[in-house]
Amino acid sequence: MNRTETIDFEQIIERTLSGVVIIDTNSTVMYHNQTAYDLLECKVDNPLLSRDFSDFLHPHYHEICKERISQILVNKLVAEEMEQKLITCSGMVVDVEIKGIPYNGDKAPLALIFIRDITKQKKAERLLAHKDKLSSIGQFAAGIAHEVRNPLTAVKGFVQLLKEEMNHSYLETIESELQKALVTLNNLLQVSKPEQLNEPVTSINLCEELDAIIFLFQEKTYHIELIKNYQNTDILLLGKKNILVKSFFNLIKNAIEAINDKGKIFIEYNVLDGIANIKITDTGVGIPEEKLSMLGTPFYSTKDTGTGMGLTQVLAAVMEHKGQINIESKLGIGTTFHIALPIH
Ligand SMILES: Nc1ncnc2c1ncn2[C@@H]1O[C@H](COP(=O)(O)OP(=O)(O)O)[C@@H](O)[C@H]1O
Ligand SMILES: [Mg+2]
């Protein structure tokens, strides 16, 4: 190696991409670098040094971590990279990859732990898996919907003819139930094959559209404080208006339905680096973490009268516009849907 000046290794370790932590047999933190401190969102009044490292372990991983730590400290073996979750000082869950190796301390054995933040990578993986799942479910559903819609349409036609010939009270019910089934099938076809709708791309003022949607819900929002924060309202977005309006309708409807008693809904809009960001945040019931991956699956609903088609439509619309969707939710606190759409 060529050196032109003395290298400050400590500075390198402090700022290296991985969090580095050394713990003793009580799992007390004896050393940490700046990256670990930042990753775990520690502060001067909430330090990392001398803390019990197991405070940061996600409950799902307590047992396995105990085993791995004993493997390092007692058996002096390396604990290879493993994907886990940690909980930061502010309560955020972060996806990490952790490797531990024995470290020979002066007095007692110590464990040197490397922590790599893989939150972004995991998010991208999850999104991709979700897209794959959706497109295969979508294709399957569209196939069935198509096959079932045609005979049902024929039956509906014959019921109408029958109604002209005779007047039986059941016929009304048959017709209206058939109509419901056809609406569901059409919804399904719409979300699984939105490109078939052939809607032209136009310039859209999304803020005006958001206001129009809010207006539609005014009767249902007496108990809700609606807070709008629109910026760059003059920048128009190129897209398929009906599809996008329907998506934001679905998201706002869900936000309203998530609030049982009193609550707030924040609707934010801004344009940054050619991307329109729309955030819809509610202070509603929230979504349990294990259910997040179900969102967008056709017919997945936790509501008595839900259709489970709203978010399927939203995801299809966002994909169609080459945008991105990010969902953050805390049970009992609320949910944010962040939609990012390229404006051109
Ligand atoms: N803002 C939200 N807050 C809490 N849960 C939500 C929210 N949006 C969606 N969900 C959950 O996702 C499910 C699917 O939503 P959606 O596809 O719109 O169908 P539906 O509203 O008909 O149930 C809902 O049943 C609900 O459990
Ligand atoms: Mg809905």
Automatic annotation (TrEMBL):
One of its GO terms (molecular function) is phosphorelay sensor kinase activity. GO terms for biological process: regulation of DNA-templated transcription. It catalyses: ATP + protein L-histidine = ADP + protein N-phospho-L-histidine. It comes from the Bacteria. Its EC number is 2.7.13.3. SUPFAM superfamilies: ATPase domain of HSP90 chaperone/DNA topoisomerase II/histidine kinase, Homodimeric domain of signal transducing histidine kinase, PYP-like sensor domain (PAS domain). Residues 143-344 form the Histidine kinase domain. Transmembrane segments: none annotated. NCBIfam families: sensory_box. This is histidine kinase. The lineage of its organism: Bacteria, Bacillati, Bacillota, Bacilli, Bacillales.
